[in-house]
Design goal:
The complex is a heterodimer of chains A (about 600) and B (about 170). Chain A has about 600 residues and is α/β, with parallel strands linked by helices. Chain A has 17 helices and 15 strands. Chain A folds into three domains: about 200 residues, 3-Layer(aba) Sandwich (Cytidine Deaminase, domain 2), CATH 3.40.140; about 90 residues, no CATH class; about 220 residues, no CATH class. In chain A, strands 1, 2, 3, 4, 5, 6, 7, 8, 9, 12 and 13 form an eleven-stranded mixed beta sheet that branches. A two-stranded antiparallel ribbon of chain A has the order 10-11. In chain A, strands 14-15 form a two-stranded antiparallel sheet. In chain A, a hairpin with a 4-residue loop joins strand 10 and strand 11. Chain B has about 170 residues and is of the alpha+beta class. Chain B has two domains: about 90 residues, no CATH class; about 45 residues. Chain B is built from two helices and nine strands, in the order E-E-E-H-H-E-E-E-E-E-E. In chain B, the strands form two sheets. In chain B, strands 1-2-3-4-5-6 form a six-stranded antiparallel beta sheet. A three-stranded antiparallel beta sheet of chain B has the order 7-8-9, with no helix packed on it. In chain B, a hairpin with a 2-residue loop joins strand 7 and strand 8. The longest helix of chain B has 22 residues. The radius of gyration of chain B is 21 Å and the shape is elongated. The termini of chain B are close together. Classes of the chains: A alpha/beta (about 600), B alpha+beta (about 170). Chains A and B meet through strand 12 and strand 13 of A and strand 6 of B. Chain A: Keywords: Membrane, Transmembrane, Transmembrane helix. Chain A: It comes from Oreochromis niloticus. Chain A: This is Phosphatidylinositol glycan anchor biosynthesis, class Q.
Amino acid sequence: MVLKIFFPQCCNRAESGLLVGRWISGHDSAVVLAVIHYPFIPGQVKQYIQQMQAQSGVELTVLGSWSLPKEGQESMESFLRDLSTIFPQQRWLQVSRQMGKMGFICEVVNRNQTALAPPILLTKKQNEEEEEKVIFVHYEQRKVMLSQLHPTESGDPDPNTEPSSELKQVFQTVARSQPLFFLDRYDDGPLKSTHWQSEGREASIIVELLKQASVPLCMLISWLLALWTWISVSSVSCRIFSLYPLRFLSSKLSTCVQISYRTEHMRTLSSPKPAAGHKQFMRKGNILVSFLVDVGLGILLMSWLYRDDHIATLANMLMPAADHVAKELEELLQWLMGAPAGLKMNRALDQVLGRFFLYHIHLWISYIHLMSPFIEGILWYGGLSVCLGLTFALSLLSDMVALLTFHIYCFYVYGARLYCLKIYGLSSLWRLFRGKKWNVLRQRVDSCSYDVDQLFIGTLLFTILLFLLPTTALYYLVFTLLRLVVVLFQGILHLSVDFINSFPLFAMGLRIFRPYRLAEGVKFQVLCDEPGTALHLLMEINPLKCSTVVQTYRTPTYSCYPRDSWAALVKKLFVGELIYPWRHKSTKAD
Amino acid sequence: MEDEAFTDISGKPISLDCQSHSSFCREFIISSPKVSMGKVMVYTCSVWLLAYAVFFFTQNTAVLSGAILVTLVGMMLHIHFVKVDHESLLVIGSLGIQVSSSYASGREITTFIEMSKIKDIVINEAIYMHQIIYYLCVLLKDPSEPDAVSSVVPLFQVRMSISQEPV
């Protein structure tokens, strides 16, 4: 078997000392974590290692000795071999390196074998093991410590069970040995060790300040949230008679849905405990960053709106726009009442339907004109709420569009109901025409003998409905198309809100600026080796692909997605059933 | 080291290089021929002649700039995403297998498969249009189920097959 030793790059030039690390069970490999330099007291080393083991939960041991003799120092071969008696181990590694040469030389001393095997075979085996079959895998300690190998285990895995993958064990060992890296050789302690901290890395003071400030900020946010829930609860309880309509309305208005969604996020963020596990940490980071970006974009939009009197221009544009839409609808109805596209309509029904819808439009326009002096005020105060985020602006826009095109929705409902009634009547009378009947009990078509007068009236009604069908069908078609246009526009707005809500900006930023944090795997490179030394490999971190990042770290939202497939939608349109194409995924039972 | 004349399934010549870093570590590199200048010139000239002919009829200079843009973008996309320069397979005993392909623009895609996930390496055959090609692939297994094959990963993705006797 080949012995693999994972050696940190920061210890390549460390002074001679003891190697501290962990043997990985199941695979023939060892991870070196730090080098403790001479002089040391063996008792103190053992105590230190036990202390570190208790703090970190990693099974640390002394793996062997490391010697990098400086100029003028004679080699300490015998001293190093004596060390193996002080720290009794199953296997003792003696790694040495000459200054100026790249390769390491490793000797493996196996204990406890001298008693078991016959001496001749033993020397041959030992020679073979000492000469080759050792791989040194160099890794960069700080990057491996901070990195997270994907795919991560979902849920909370039992920390005592070891993953069967060797690389995962290596990454976990380095990540958990953080207490070992607190003291290094520049500290005034009894032991001097070398690891990644000895290279000297500055921490950012802004990050430290932010970490200190985060706890009082979390307390503030949770207090504000408690206040908000108390207000909303009390306002609902004092209007208890209108509880049902309020609930229904708030589930339909996308602004209210967005508010409740953001409140959930704030609740997740405001817990003062640090995140347990990598997934929670990424979730919190994503929520925070997307919330900040959202608010930033909203404030940008707000500053554009309130500058140069844009609100007044918008309000002034709104009235003529509503008038224009109403005029276009009137012209459309006049066209339908004439001979649209060369089709000949039934005059009486045409006039009735056309006049009915025209009166409806007239009512609507009068109400809009009534509200026109307040429009600017409403827009002004509504614009203030945009500072809560761009998603709020888009949801508000979607709700406003829904309210302003309410008359189109009404027309669609009227047209659809009429058409639906006609279709059902026609199908039932068609069955009568053929002498059959729908059996409600058995849910099937049965034959039935009708009286002559039943047949007569049925045939009459059937003929009337059939010849009135083109008129109704045309009205239904026109208003369904208008309704679909509005639904499409609202759908686009909802999709963009969903995109802003769910895109993992923090994870993408991490992938772009610190690609070693999210690792898909590793890659190896063979370092130039010299004959007679062991094989040296360089292990680098292979970062995750961007598409995998987005897929893994998407924040789950109340996304709207199509309720029906295309075939079901077309069938519903044909029959005249009312369609509600978007369905909101509810995350909890309402 | 061994450089017999190999061709891939389209007939283009490729070369194979084996390096042995140690008794248990070997690397196999397959390189394909570089982009030929003649082909590049032919494509560019034909596109530009066509654009000039269209310009001659429509007198719209946007056609010319559009053609230049299309040529440049097409070339950049081709050398970055399509043209493979060499592919290598690094076998490290008791650690795993690393497969890497590097494109003409310098981009490298590397995948490392651990030893515990590898069930076997086999030569598989597939029907491609009118011929049967043989390709090398790795059978992967889930470490918790050592008997089931979880997926098949073909090596040397750029459809290279050695039509003469392999080493």
